[in-house]
Amino acid sequence: RSPLLIALYEQDPMTNILPKEHTLYFSAPLNVSFDVALAQLRNRLHIQFSGNRRGLFHYYCPSVASYFFERSDTIDTGKWLGCFSSLYFYRQTYSDLAKWSKVVVVSEGGGLASNLWLLTESQENALNDKYHENEIVQWATENNIKELNWQKQKMVHLFCSQHQITDPQISSRLRHLIQRYDVALNDLNFHSKSHQTSENIVEHIEYLMSRENAYVY
Predict the structure, then answer these.
(1) pLDDT band for position 66 (50/70/90)?
(2) Is residue 130 pLDDT above 90, yes or no?
(3) Per-domain residue ranges for the chain?
(4) All residues at 6 or more sequence positions from 149 whose CB lies less than 8 Å from its CB, including other chains
(5) For residues 210 and 212, what is the distance between their CA atoms, to the nearest angstrom?
(6) Mean pLDDT over the full length of the chain
(7) Residue 169: which residues within 8 A CB-CB, separation 6 or more?
């Protein structure tokens, strides 16, 4: 669905009926006209990322905004907002409690947007974080796991990338080991060898975790 833009004013009664799960509140100085605000938001629908790739960006979805605006660098966010001074939305991330969140521009914005926005490194990382957390939720749901240590589980993706582990079953085994032993991968004294297979790596990790767990009293 296309986003609906509504002009609101201070203490506007309309805010009482707008669904919090589907609403973003952008604020701008009084000298910013509705047309300027509209042009800014339309411009930000189109982005460039990962080199020369281009796409339509659904920033108006609070589930996307929750990661994009909260977990990106504040300077990058300020430039992205341009003529806007702040943003208010109902945070909806997997790893945090749902609540209202406000992003305030701490430096001068970029003014009226006219060029295609190139996602910064911090913004790409924030959106990747959404993807990785969704991956963890799917794994937990499939395995009927109710409680997660998000910080430790999120290390699995980086570990698999570093050690070229691409088999979903292997990464799932790693997640189960973390869930069982409650040990962070970066706390282990693990050094891979050139001849090790993904299976060997996971077996070694399991040995280290079980040994680490044996010393916990």
Answers:
(1) very high
(2) yes
(3) 13-119, 149-214
(4) 178, 179, 182
(5) 5
(6) 90
(7) none
DSSP string, the chain: ---------TT-GGGGTS-GGG-EEEE--TTS-HHHHHHHHHHTTEEEETTTEEEE--TTSHHHHHHHHHSS-HHHHHHHHTT--EEEEEE--SSS--EEEEEE--S----S--SPEEPPHHHHHHHHHHHHHHHHHHHHHHTT-----HHHHTHHHHHHHHTT---HHHHHHHHHHHHHH---GGGS-----TT--HHHHHHHHHHHHHHHHHT--
Distance (Å, rounded) from C-alpha 210 to C-alpha 92?
Answer: 35
Residue in this structure with the two tokens 């991956």, named with its chain if needed: 135
pTM, full prediction: 0.85
Q: How confident is the model at residue 72 (pLDDT cuts 50, 70, 90)?
A: very high
Overall size of the chain counted in residues: 217
